[in-house]
């Protein structure tokens, strides 16, 4: 995944927390902040998928993850993904007509 | 009739243990982009299911080369866009998907679709799966689908459902 430099002003307390997290994870502060950012982005993207604003495939592309990863994350976080009630009604109606085919 | 599989549905059908049954019961196709999402990237990221899926679909699912493209405004990924391309070429296609965004576009354009749970019900009603087998598969699928979808499928698998 391509990366770019983004100048970012953050609260001092958050900076302290990032330093603490970095120490615990044996990493550096920038990495700790990037991990938080990515975790937040993943949650946001799953919300967009759940709302039907983007597809799973697009979500995986945006996060540079796989569909497997997203399914696992949604399951772990108890986020329900899937067809709407109206879409399920359409699907069930088709399944009923396909019975004989 | 031809099933067009998206990545999410392919993985869900595999997790429920019925992917091999599905591809044996109905001709199935997927665009290259879906294959890459499920098998190529899945294997690269060491997802064990990817190898198992590769073995099941090898020779049983037609993988069609499609133009790799991005259309961010649609909210779709390369796999779903590939399926849209195939829909124009195939005769009597049915998309297998549980993706809300993708299904809303399919619905708007009048393309038929089935969710993985309804594929399971369809297999049971055709007698390809025994109802007990279908219920077991549904339990495996349960963590990956909406609660309401689980209950609908459970109801449809009851005798007379």
Description:
The complex is a heterodimer of chains A (101) and B (161). Chain A has helices at 12-24, 29-50, 56-63, 67-76, 85-98. Chain A is mainly α and 101 residues long. Chain A has one domain (12-98). In chain A, helix 1 (12-24) crosses helix 2 (29-50) and helix 2 packs antiparallel against helix 3 (56-63). The radius of gyration of chain A is 19 Å and the shape is elongated. Chain A starts with 11 loop residues before the first helix and ends with a helix. The mean pLDDT of chain A is 93. Chain B has 161 residues and is an alpha/beta fold. Chain B has a single domain, classed as 3-Layer(aba) Sandwich (Rossmann fold), CATH 3.40.50. Chain B is built from 9 helices and 5 strands; from the N terminus they run E-H-H-E-H-H-E-H-E-H-E-H-H-H. Chain B has helices at 7-15, 19-25, 32-44, 48-57, 78-87, 100-109, 116-125, 131-141, 147-156, and strands spanning 2-5, 28-31, 61-64, 93-96, 113-114. The mean pLDDT of chain B is 95.
CATH superfamily of chain B: 5'-nuclease
CATH class of chain B, please?
Alpha Beta
Structural class of chain A: mainly alpha
- Outline the biggest β-sheet of chain B: 5 strands, parallel
Radius of gyration of chain A: 19 Å
How would you sum up the global shape of chain B?
globular
Q: Return the string of H and E elements of chain B.
A: EHHEHHEHEHEHHH
What would you call the quaternary organization? Answer: heterodimer
**Individual helix count of chain A:** 5
**Strand/helix succession of chain A:** HHHHH
Question: What is the percent of helical residues of chain B?
Answer: 55-70%
Strand content of chain A: under 5%
Q: What is the strand tally of chain A?
A: 0
Please identify, by name, the CATH architecture of chain B.
Answer: 3-Layer(aba) Sandwich
> Which structural class fits the helix and strand makeup of chain B?
alpha/beta
Sheet with most strands of chain A: none
What is the count of DSSP helices of chain B, taking H or I runs of 4+ residues?
Answer: 9
Strand fraction band of chain B?
5-15%
Largest interface (CB < 8 Å): A-B, 36 and 52 residues
Q: Give the mean pLDDT of chain A.
A: 93
The number of domains of chain B: 1
């Amino acid at each position: 995944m391509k990366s770019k430099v983004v100048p970012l002003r953050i609260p001092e307390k958050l900076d302290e927390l990032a330093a603490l997290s970095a120490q615990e994870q044996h990493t550096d502060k920038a990495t700790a902040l990037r991990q938080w950012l990515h975790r937040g982005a993943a949650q946001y993207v799953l919300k967009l998928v759940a709302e039907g604003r983007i597809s799973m495939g697009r979500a995986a592309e945006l996060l540079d993850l796989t569909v497997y990863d997203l399914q696992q994350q949604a399951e772990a976080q108890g986020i329900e993904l899937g067809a709407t009630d109206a879409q399920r009604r359409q699907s069930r109606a088709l399944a009923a007509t396909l019975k004989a085919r | 009739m031809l099933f067009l599989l998206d990545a999410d549905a392919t993985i869900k059908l595999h997790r429920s243990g019925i992917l091999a049954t599905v591809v044996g019961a109905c001709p199935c196709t997927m665009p290259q982009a879906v294959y890459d999402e499920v098998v190529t990237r899945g294997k690269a990221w060491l997802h064990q299911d990817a190898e198992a899926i590769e073995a099941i679909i090898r020779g049983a699912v037609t993988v069609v080369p499609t133009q790799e493209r991005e259309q961010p405004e649609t909210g779709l990924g390369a796999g779903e866009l590939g399926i849209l391309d195939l829909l124009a070429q195939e005769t009597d296609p049915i998309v297998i998907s549980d993706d809300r965004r993708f299904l809303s576009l399919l619905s708007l354009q009048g393309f038929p679709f089935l969710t993985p749970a309804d594929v399971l019900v369809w297999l049971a009603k055709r007698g390809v799966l025994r109802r007990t087998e279908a219920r077991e598969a549904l339990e495996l699928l349960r963590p990956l689908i909406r609660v309401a979808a689980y209950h609908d499928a459970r109801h449809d698998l009851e005798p007379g459902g």
